[in-house]
Amino acid sequence: MFSGSVIGSAALVSLALFGAYVSRTGIKIGDVLTPKAFIGLIVGAVLPYWFSGMTMKSVGSAALKMVKEVHRQFNTIPGLMEGKAKPDYTYCVKISTDASLCQIIPPGALVMLTPLIVGTLFGVETLASVQAAAKGDTKGDPLKDTSSPSCNILIKLMAVEPFVFSLFFAAHGGLLFKFI
Fold this sequence. Notes:
Layout: H1 2-25, H2 35-76, H3 89-103, H4 105-122, H5 124-136, H6 141-164, H7 166-172, H8 175-179
């Protein structure tokens, strides 16, 4: 229930920012069958699944490291199985902390770089389609438990970052279409 309300609030905030983005850049929302809009919809539809897959892979690898450490402790610390000795909690916390800090870099880079690359290469119209598709996409139940809190960040950043760079994209975006 909590993750649903978090995603709902993120969607509401991003919808307001999407309106501000459209207003600021002066684009007309219309035909989704134009090449720019279609490219944006494809990128935006793939983005939540790619992001969720990256976060689920991170959780899986961190859990595997933790399981190996717990097995190691049960095999090497005498009396642990009988409850006579204490496990090394500090090392388990270190594994979780290291994994969370190191494994967030690729999904974070995906979220931060996608609007910059799409806006610069394809322009404001394509970026608007990416925003709309990334926010409107829903994921299944397996993704909800693992990736819901991080999807909150995905939704908000996909709305905020294009708005911040919207004037740049309006003036200099669409480089790829200028050469076609």
